[in-house]
Amino acid sequence: MHTVATPSLSLGQRLTAFSHLCKPRVNSLIVFTAMIGMCLATPDFPPLLRFTVASLGIALVSFAAAALNCLVERTVDAKMARTSWRATARGDISPLETVTLATALGAAGLWLLHSYINDLTMWLTLATFVGYTVIYTLILKPATPMNIVIGGASGAMPPLLGWTAMTGQVSAEPLVLFLIIFLWTPPHFWALACYRRDDYARSGLPMLPVTHGIAFTCQHILWYTVMLAAASLIPVSLGMSGTFYLIAISLLDLVFLGYAIALCRNYSDGLARRTFRYSILYLTLLFAALFADRLIVF
Ligand code: HEM
Ligand SMILES: CC(C)=CCC/C(C)=C/CC/C(C)=C/COP(=O)(O)OP(=O)(O)O
């Protein structure tokens, strides 16, 4: 655990440390889902400039949200092996620096969306930012083991943001994409929380495997995976996607259900870790399949 500030870092080292706080790997998948939302919203490929500016705007606000999450949770992060290396937890960069850089990124993102995309997307992105930093991080996460069920709504917004960025309106299709990520998030996070339960117990955060045990959490992972599998078929019934997506998602769902059932029957930390990794592959391939299916139609 590193709670004591290390000797001061150079500006370049502090900027690098800040960039890690922006959770670039998580946010690359978040922005990918927004990009697919943009592609699905337009009958042809979206205009390249609009696509690039909208993606950048959403990415900048997501980076700001992630950095502020690290700032708010710096004391908790310092207690967990997974997060104690973060610059905010170590004291390598100050709260003022983090707030300043995050505000600059977030403001730039919102300005891009307001100036070049549309105000609906700008407001929805701001609401997503508030949902993650205030509702999830500050209120729900320390208060209830079901934090992720409601808090996951912010992570589910990006495809809808991508959609509104291209069309200026909300319709059934992006709401289905929202629903898919919303139902995917609890199995994604709970699988990790299971094999990281000692970390969470040390942190004092009321995570489901700590408060209600592994068996209860795995049952919930299974229920959410069943609901996710059902929701993942809606794009086919709405006519958004065709046979290619149907085949791909059926295989992806079978494997995810297999992991969830195996966790319930014969839990091990290794299996929970593999389930967590698979959840990321699942969501990536689901959105890739939605896009590929559209290409096949062209
Ligand atoms: C609020 C909802 C979410 C929670 C609580 C959550 C939780 C987490 C946690 C704790 C990790 C860290 C794993 C580690 O440090 O080893 C993680 C990793 C990851 N999450 Fe999520 N997640 C959420 C939503 C999402 C969403 C919406 C996406 C993408 C659309 C996503 C994609 C990823 C990816 C790609 C990683 C792997 C990052 C890496 O390899 O470093 N997550 N998630
Ligand atoms: C467009 C926009 C503003 C999007 C924001 C959405 C967003 C950043 C979702 C968060 C996904 C994420 C990093 C979860 C980590 O959970 P955690 O914070 O519980 O994990 P930790 O323990 O690693 O901090």
Automatic annotation (TrEMBL):
Protein name: Protoheme IX farnesyltransferase
Top class in the EC scheme: transferase
Function: Converts heme B (protoheme IX) to heme O by substitution of the vinyl group on carbon 2 of heme B porphyrin ring with a hydroxyethyl farnesyl side group.
Catalysis performed (reactions): heme b + (2E,6E)-farnesyl diphosphate + H2O = Fe(II)-heme o + diphosphate
Miscellaneous comment in the UniProt entry for this protein: Carbon 2 of the heme B porphyrin ring is defined according to the Fischer nomenclature.
Cellular component terms (Gene Ontology): plasma membrane
Source superkingdom: Bacteria
Entry EC no(s): 2.5.1.141
Transmembrane segments: 49-72, 93-114, 120-139, 146-163, 175-193, 214-238, 244-264, 276-297
Subcellular location: Cell membrane
Similarity comment: family membership: Belongs to the UbiA prenyltransferase family. Protoheme IX farnesyltransferase subfamily.
Phylogenetic classification of the source organism: Bacteria, Pseudomonadati, Pseudomonadota, Betaproteobacteria, Rhodocyclales
GO molecular function, one term: protoheme IX farnesyltransferase activity
